[in-house]
Amino acid sequence: MHHNSLEVREVRPDDDFDYLLKLINDTLMRYVKHSVEFTGLAISSSELAQKYAEQKAFVALCDGKTVAVAEIRLSAFSKNGNLMYGYSDGNEDALHALIDECERYVANQGGSKLFAYVNTKFGQVRNSEITMLERCGFIPDEYSYITCQLSLTGWTAPDCFVADGIEPVTALDTEQINALLLEDGEDEMAELFNRQFSTGQSRNRVMLCIRDQASGEMAGIAYYEIYNYYPTPEEAYFHASAFGLHFRPKFVVDKTEKKRLLQGALQSMKQLDVRHVITKMTLNHFDVFAAMATEGFTNDTMEELNSLRLTKAI
C-alpha cells in the first residue's frame, strides 16, 4: 500500500507498547514460517517500554494510526546500528520511511552502516524477508550465521588429547580482540563477538590460545563466557555462551591443531563444571564448523536462531 503522507516520530512514553510489541511479533511470525515452535520475542510490553526509554525507537503513523515501529541499537565498538522492526500488512513503505530515520540517527552518532538480521533455515540463501530488505537498500552478507549447542555431560576428551601449548590468555581485552579480528578481515565475527559478549562484569570470561612456533604470536584463540543458568527456580548450573574460535590467516594452522584447540576449550569447560555450551558462528570457515560438528555440536532445536546479516551503507 502506498501512503501519500506518513508521520514519523520518536516513540513516546504514552505510546501503546502492547500494540508495538504485537507489530514486532506479528512481523517475526510472518517471516519465520519454518518453525512452529517460534513464539516471537521473549519480552513483555513493559520491558519493551523500558528498552525504548534507553535506546532510539521510531514509529510511523498513517491517519493517526501506528502502522510500523523500528528500534535502533548502536554497536558499542563501531557506532553502526542494529535494526529491529515491525509493520502491519501492506505497510512496507512505512518501514522504508522508518529506516531512513534510523539512517540519519546512526550517521549523527558517527556510524556508517545499518545492520538487519533475518532468521533463516540452515543453508538458506533466499527468503521473502531478505527480498523485502533488499528493496529497502540492504545487501546480504556472503555467509550466514548458525547457532549450535553441545551438552558437555556426554562429552569427554579423547584419550589421545594433549594439552601442551594450549595456554590461557589474560592480557587481551575486548578492544584488543576487536582489533585482532578486524585486522584479519573478520568484520562479521567482530560484530558477532560484541553482540554476544556481555558488557558488564557479571560473567566470567575464559580465553585460550595456541601460538605460532616460529614467531611466538597467537595463531588461534578460543573464548567463551560462563554464567549460572537456572532452568528451574530450584536448579542452577554453569552454562557457557558466546563461544568462538578464530585462527589467524597469516599463520598456517593445520586441522589437527584446530581440533586440538577446540577440544582444549571444551575440556576447560568440563574442568569448570560447565554442563552446556552454545555458540553462534559464521559459516565462512567450514573447517571450524566441521570440527565442531565432529565433537557433537548440533543445530537441532536451534534452527529458529540461525540468521543472515544484511548491511545498508549510510
Structure notes:
This is N-acetyltransferase domain-containing protein. The protein is of the alpha+beta class and 314 residues long. The chain folds into 2 domains: 7-144, Gcn5-related N-acetyltransferase (GNAT) (Aminopeptidase, 3-Layer(aba) Sandwich), CATH 3.40.630; 156-295, Aminopeptidase, CATH 3.40.630.30. It is built from 8 helices and 13 strands. The protein has helices at residues 17-31, 45-54, 92-108, 128-135, 174-183, 187-196, 255-271, 286-294; strands spanning 7-10, 56-62, 65-74, 81-87, 113-119, 139-140, 145-151, 167-168, 204-211, 218-232, 235-247, 274-282, 307-313. The protein has a 7-stranded mixed sheet, sandwiched between helices. Strands 7-12-11-10-9-8 form a 6-stranded mixed sheet. Strand 2 (56-62) and strand 3 form a beta hairpin. Helix 1 (17-31) packs across helix 2 (45-54), helix 5 (174-183) runs antiparallel to helix 6 and helix 7 (255-271) packs across helix 8. The longest helix is centred in the first third of the chain and has 17 residues, at 92-108. The radius of gyration is 21 Å and the shape is elongated. The chain starts with 6 loop residues before the first strand and ends with a strand. Residues 34-39 have low confidence and may be disordered.
